[in-house]
Write a structure and sequence with these properties.
Layout: H1 2-7, H2 12-21, H3 23-35, E1 42-44, E2 50-51, E3 58-61, H4 64-72, H5 76-85, E4 88-91, H6 94-105, H7 115-119, H8 125-135, H9 157-168, H10 172-179, H11 197-212, E5 219-223, H12 229-238, E6 241-246, H13 249-261, E7 268-272, E8 283-289, H14 300-310, E9 311-324, H15 337-343, H16 352-361, E10 365-371, H17 373-389, H18 391-398, H19 400-418, E11 422-430
Parallel strand pairs: 1-3, 5-6, 5-8, 6-7, 8-9
Antiparallel strand pairs: 1-2, 3-4, 9-11, 10-11
Helix pairs in contact: 3-8, 4-5, 4-8, 5-19, 11-12, 14-16, 15-19, 17-19, 18-19
Length: 448
């Protein structure tokens, strides 16, 4: 810069060089002015400059497009788009950085405000103008190609099939990296944080089987059977006949191969079928593990009634489902912008109480509810570790953007479970027989 001072006495070139070598400081100052608080992370900008608290995790702003994404879609979705596109990155511990950044998006105290709230404040015009200048071309960047374009009504058979395909047909090889040998894509059940993921997933499958009271010769319907882990375990360890249904062609092909390899084709049938089209009941038991989140608010009572109709009197349902915390004014199910756009299109979370009420409205008797929230934080951290350990291959299989989606999604969800923003529950319900006898032992929690 001193060279420019000697060459150009007008100061114009000096201004230009300064503007290109202090982007981090300017970005930091504008954001702090908007938010009314110091930024909790350090910023490294595209020009190599840095600003912010020393020793803090570094938010790497790779280009001006990242600034434009935050301006045109402030908050969670703008940050997610920038992350997926590679415009933003994190240098340092991912969980620590996400925990600090979450305060700008989700978890705020009474003395702070989110970025989207700040940008709407008329008093923030100076800071906004500064960010616009930093962002360059005043046009909104196109969303990354991994973002879902919504078409049609929610939760029809067609849109549900498309949503499931988006999430689960990423590639079985990719899920083998993330999930490990168990190929179970739901919360594990840990005896100790030092245990293995495979043992914790086996214990979860066994817990479900014991809660359902499975005995040889019974029929089990596995709704949303995934890659066949529950179906194989129940047939092999408890001697039941299983029908597993999924909307994913890739999952079904993988599950059928597992069934054949285990020599269980006479006891396990895997179908590509919507649960609403299953008509060959009654079943002695139904397992719905990590599937009900896809059902949707408008369809949930229908879902519960369909499962009730498929159970024989005295038959049991194990509904394993993520729940959000209730709001003061309950008007709709919660939709997370990032997860809806990139991970689970059309997924909706309800509070535990809402889910229990809907199951009871369908005439099921809820007999037991177990929260296993802490177990999901442990599970997600193991999935993240698996993904990071084989990161180059994961990117080759799924593509860099999709791999970044899964990394952000799983790490952020681990923190959400650990901080009690969301929970996960196993709900055991019974279709009561005419006699009123539930069929459960007097001390039902023998499964523990």
């Amino acid at each position: 810069m001193s060279l420019f001072k000697q060459v150009d006495k007008s100061g114009i070139l000096v201004t230009e060089v300064c503007a290109m070598s202090d982007a981090a400081l300017r970005l930091n100052n504008h954001l702090e002015q908007l938010l009314g608080n110091p930024l909790p992370v350090r910023i490294r900008a595209w020009d190599g400059s840095q600003a912010g608290p020393p020793g803090a995790p570094v938010l790497v702003v790779r280009n001006r497009r990242a600034v434009r994404r935050l301006l045109f879609k402030p908050g969670e979705l703008g940050l997610a788009r920038a992350w997926v596109a590679g415009d933003l990155d994190i240098d340092g511990d991912l969980y620590t950085a996400l925990g600090l950044i979450s305060g700008l998006v989700w978890e705020r105290d009474e003395d702070s405000r989110s970025l989207s709230e700040a940008l709407r404040d008329p008093r923030a015009r100076s800071a906004v103008r500064g960010l616009v200048q930093l962002g360059g071309v005043p046009l909104p960047p196109a969303p990354p190609r991994e973002e879902v374009r919504r078409r049609g009504h929610l939760h029809t058979r067609r849109t549900d099939r498309r949503a499931v395909s988006h999430h689960y047909d990423v590639g079985n090889d990719f899920y083998e990296i993330v999930l490990g040998p168990s190929m179970v894509y739901s919360c594990a059940y840990w005896e100790s944080p030092r245990g293995t993921l495979e043992a914790a997933q086996r214990d979860k499958l066994e817990l479900v089987c014991r809660k359902l009271g499975l005995t040889p010769g019974q029929r089990l319907l596995d709704v949303g059977c995934g890659w066949g882990s529950m179906a194989v375990h129940a047939a092999r360890e408890h001697g039941v006949s299983v029908v597993g249904v999924t909307l994913s062609q890739e999952q079904a092909a993988y599950a059928r191969k597992r069934v054949a390899d285990e020599g269980l084709t006479d006891r396990v049938e895997i179908r590509v079928q919507d649960y609403r089209d299953v008509t060959d009941g009654p079943y002695d038991a139904i397992a719905s593990i990590g599937m009900a989140e896809h059902v949707g608010a408008d369809r949930y009572l229908e879902y519960a009634r369909d499962l009730y109709a498929l159970l024989k009197p005295g038959g049991r349902l194990l509904n394993h489902q993520i729940a959000r915390r209730p709001e003061r004014e309950e008007t709709t199910y919660h939709v997370d912008e990032f997860i809806d756009a990139y991970v689970f299109p059309d997924g909706e979370l309800a509070p535990l109480g809402t889910t229990v009420t809907q199951l009871e409205r369908a005439r099921l008797e809820v007999r037991d509810v177990e929260s296993i929230r802490e177990h999901y934080g442990l599970t997600l951290r193991r999935w993240v570790a698996n993904l990071e350990a084989d990161w180059p291959r994961a990117q080759r299989i799924a593509g860099p953007g999709r791999a970044r989606v899964w990394l952000l999604y799983m790490a952020a969800c681990a923190l959400a479970f650990e901080r009690n923003r969301i929970g996960v529950n196993q709900i055991l319900a019974v279709r009561p027989p005419a006699s009123g006898a539930s069929g459960l032992p007097l001390r039902a929690r023998t499964w523990n």
